[in-house]
Amino acid sequence: MFESALIEHKFDKEAYEREEPALRTGLLEAQLELVEKQSFAAVIVITGMDGAGKGDVIHRLLEWLDPRHVQVDAYGDPDDTESSRPRMWRYWRDLPPKGRISIVFGSWYTDPLKSRLRGDNGRSRFERELAAINRFEEMLTSEGILLLKFLLVVSPEEQKRRLGAFERRTGVKSRALEEWADVKSRKRIRPIVEDLVRRTSTDHAPWIVLPSDDPEYRDLTFGRTILEALRQRLEQPTVLATAPFPATIPNIDRRTVLDTLDLSRKLPSNAYKKALEEAQARLLALSQGKRFQDRALVAAFEGHDAAGKGGAIRRVAFALDPRRYRVHPIAAPTDEEKARPYLWRFWRHVPRRGHMALFDRSWYGRVLVERVEGFASEAEWLRAYGEINDFEEELTRGGIVVAKFWLAITKEEQLRRFEAREEIAYKHYKITPEDWRNREKWDRYQLAIGDMIDRTSTPEAPWTLVEAEDKRWARVKVLETICERLEQAL
């Protein structure tokens, strides 16, 4: 696969000095246009063989660009904050906003490749991890990010010469760096790396194999490739594809899984207090137990307006040590959040081990309110089902227990609660004109809810449907379900 890249490619220094000023000017102009338009972000992944000059091309690019609008995200072994969260958390955390360029050195490829080279991962697990990376990169590009991936390669003779010169200059024997081991291991490493490149070079994020024996050729080719990609995107913005037909199967009788719930379920007040106290004590013991310190909990609360999400969250929070949980109320995205991929604002709130995050509304807004109200295109909300499933799978793989609740009430009970909120002074803040507008689209929301539950209830993160006509019943069911999910995981 790398043979053509290892053919001698040279560019004499005089020619380089003639072309470099124009390339530098073009890159700076494209970057400043990107900053002004803020139409997309660019992520440049740089990896390759030891001695190929990865650090050199990064320094050269920073020399050519305005560094105020560039971030370098270099990843080594995860620190305590990073290792206490899922593997992909730190890469999501650092995604750049629109108008900015990120240079990624030591990327999401490093851990799977290292594990494979050490023999920790078998082939099937390696392939699963690469498939997950492909889905991650497809999501980035679907969200409008310009993703460029460079693999720097160098001939065995040149690599040996450079590593030897490094050792003589520094007195430090070259060790296996981020992605590749030393020259002696080249025959063993090469087929694994070629397998990685083949499986992750896609139409939306192809690998660019960059010959690096000659520094002048390497740097000019690197710069030209980035300039051409920036100019093409600036001049011809990518348009999201429309969804394939049919988007959904027509629901002729308009029945959904919510119609199977017995909303008459109630818990008498005399039994409620005892059941609530027992469930809260059970949850407190689980959250403070030694085994939970290696896990975390993410609980997402969704439901009809006025279904009692806030009351359920308060009863869960009452059972917990306030130092070990956070409640995240999710509203319309801020400008900072709109400038990044949709799931970024939820990844940033992923709890570390031993902690819990309670979401009042969640990442499901894209397939509910954004779908029904037209804030997301059909292609965007259809794509979101798979992205959400991947997100929740990453959480569970990282040791996080995911509990998802849909609190259901009838249209008649919702009306009663809306009217009560308007009559009681201290509940006025709970009712808004938007609540009444959403009520007019009740049937459309019911269909969206049914699709959501069908497409995102997985073995790792199943939905729990909560009969919420009786608030007492709903609160106890939520608490007991969280306890069951934790006990099952622990």
TrEMBL record:
Keywords: Transferase. InterPro entries: P-loop_NTPase, PolyP_AMP_Tfrase, PPK2-related. Its EC number is 2.7.4.33. GO terms for molecular function: transferase activity. Residues 11-233, 269-488 form the Polyphosphate kinase-2-related domain. It holds the Pfam family PPK2. It is an enzyme of class 2 (transferase). SUPFAM superfamilies: P-loop containing nucleoside triphosphate hydrolases (SSF52540). NCBIfam families: poly_P_AMP_trns. This is Polyphosphate:AMP phosphotransferase. It comes from Benzoatithermus flavus.
